[in-house]
């Protein structure tokens, strides 16, 4: 099903139309509806992942986790607005890489994609590590590698069958997570009402006289990972039935639902335990709180629900990483014969799915702290350049520049750039160092591949739907 408008509505040349058609011809199958996109995004974000970082961020922000979530939610909304703009111009797989490549520069687009690829490739590995940690706590006699291998095998199998089945599975998995989370919130509220731990409802998690702006920024920078699901949805533009309409809608629905969920859950947790140093294990604060509010039985249910999050998250993380590699391979940024192919029957980039699975197996040799420290670096680079891409579209492609266009294509994404750069500089030194090394490796690879930038970069394509903004 073609996404191209009629020739009369497009303000680009014949060569660009032909290039756009080449992108759209019978490669990935368009099977995803709005509900599939929303559940894929929510599963990618893993609703129960809100519990992973509560203790760490509560200590970092001195008891202001909900405020840190509000800060990062504002940042994400500005970036989401830019994603929704760009997906209308480029309803093709690739996300931030595609947008920077097409709107700014092909070489720069490659580096943005390289930075974003680090996030996408490592998230399945982190997911497998979490699986081993949580299941190991319940079944200590089972070796760690068994849970890692089993998690990766299930996620890989579902992705090889096809994207629609994986999306349908996520409806069930996200629903289970939400039920567990609702019970968690209800039990926490009951404990607060009963005065457990001396708790009472207060606005302190959002505001107090001892708020440290730098600490809130640092906490928000960590929590940005919680919202990466909307970015993953944009990589599925070629598999959505109506990408120009449904992906922007899915993006804002995902952020709205997830943001409300994150703030609500962390608020009641923070009210019950304003000082997380009371807990025995700050990193494992959430399972300890689950036992406190509901006993050992609820703690077991909580851990079971978390494993549903691990499975749902692993499916969508692997799906998105494979499709990002596909987009880069199709355009020649990576070897096309290896990365730019899809199976004719399933419409799945099989080789890429298997490559991501192999990388995830490094979970057997890397600890959680080492893996997690590398994620945010690329995420903020990608978010920054998506916002910048909107600004470049305005100056390069739009012919009519009304006051509304200046606001929507320059002012709003400009604020998004500023916020993301601010959060990027709030990252810890280890993240900056490891991310910087990864980026340098990408630059060296690009330099060698293009023989010092003398070789032609992949052709730039003008926005194929630009007519509707003129």
TrEMBL record:
Short name of any one Pfam family annotated for the protein: AA_permease
Domain of life: Bacteria
Compartment list: Membrane
Keyword Transmembrane included in the entry's annotation: yes
Topology class, membrane: Multi-pass membrane protein
Transmembrane regions: 37-59, 65-83, 104-130, 142-163, 170-193, 213-230, 251-273, 293-315, 346-365, 377-398, 405-424, 430-448
A GO BP annotation: transmembrane transport
GO cellular component, as recorded: membrane
Domain Amino acid permease/ SLC12A as annotated: residue spans: 36-395
Chief place where the protein resides: membrane
Keywords of the record: Membrane, Transmembrane, Transmembrane helix
Keyword Ion transport tagged: no
PANTHER family: AMINO ACID TRANSPORTER-RELATED, PUTRESCINE IMPORTER PUUP
Full protein name: APC family permease
């Amino acid at each position: 099903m073609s996404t191209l408008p009629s020739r009369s509505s497009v303000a680009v040349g014949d060569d660009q139309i032909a290039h756009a058609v080449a992108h759209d011809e019978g490669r990935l199958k368009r099977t995803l509806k709005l509900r599939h996109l929303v559940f894929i995004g929510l599963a990618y974000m893993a609703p129960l992942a809100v519990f992973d970082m509560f203790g760490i961020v509560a200590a970092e922000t001195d008891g202001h986790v909900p405020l840190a979530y509000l800060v990062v939610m504002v940042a994400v909304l500005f970036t989401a607005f830019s994603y929704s703009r760009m997906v209308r111009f480029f309803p093709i797989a690739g996300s931030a890489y595609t947008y920077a490549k097409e709107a700014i520069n092909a070489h720069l687009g490659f580096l943005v994609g390289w930075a974003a690829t680090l996030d996408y490739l490592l998230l399945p590995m982190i997911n497998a590590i979490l699986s081993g940690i949580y299941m190991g706590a319940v079944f200590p006699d089972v070796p760690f590698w068994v849970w890692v291998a089993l998690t990766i095998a299930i996620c890989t199998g579902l992705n090889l069958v096809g994207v629609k089945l994986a999306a349908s599975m996520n409806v069930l998995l996200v629903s289970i997570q939400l039920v567990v989370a609702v019970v968690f919130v209800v039990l926490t509220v009951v404990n607060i009402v009963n005065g457990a731990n001396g708790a009472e409802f207060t606005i302190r998690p959002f505001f107090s006289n001892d708020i440290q702006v730098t600490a809130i920024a640092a906490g928000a920078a960590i929590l940005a990972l919680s919202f990466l699901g909307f970015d993953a949805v944009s990589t599925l533009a070629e598999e959505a039935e109506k990408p120009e309409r449904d992906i922007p809608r899915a993006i804002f629905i995902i952020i709205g639902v997830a943001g409300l969920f994150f703030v609500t859950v962390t608020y009641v947790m923070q009210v019950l335990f304003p000082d997380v140093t009371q807990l025995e294990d700050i990193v494992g604060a959430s399972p300890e709180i689950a036992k406190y509010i509901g006993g050992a039985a609820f703690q077991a249910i909580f851990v079971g629900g978390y494993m549903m999050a691990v499975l749902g998250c692993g499916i969508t993380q692997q799906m998105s990483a494979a499709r990002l590699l596909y987009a880069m391979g199709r355009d020649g940024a990576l070897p096309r014969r290896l990365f730019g192919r899809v199976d004719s029957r399933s419409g799945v980039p099989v080789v890429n799915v298997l490559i991501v699975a192999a990388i995830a197996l490094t979970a057997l040799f890397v600890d959680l702290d080492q893996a997690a420290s590398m994620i945010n670096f690329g995420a903020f680079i990608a978010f920054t350049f998506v916002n910048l891409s909107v600004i470049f579209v305005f100056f390069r492609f739009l012919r009519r520049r009304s006051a509304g266009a200046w606001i929507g294509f320059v002012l709003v994404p400009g604020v998004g750039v500023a916020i993301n750069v601010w959060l990027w500089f709030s990252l810890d030194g280890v993240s900056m160092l490891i991310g910087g090394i990864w980026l340098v490796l990408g630059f060296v690879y690009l330099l060698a591949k293009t023989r010092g930038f003398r070789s032609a970069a992949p052709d730039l394509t003008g926005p194929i739907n630009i007519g509707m903004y003129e």
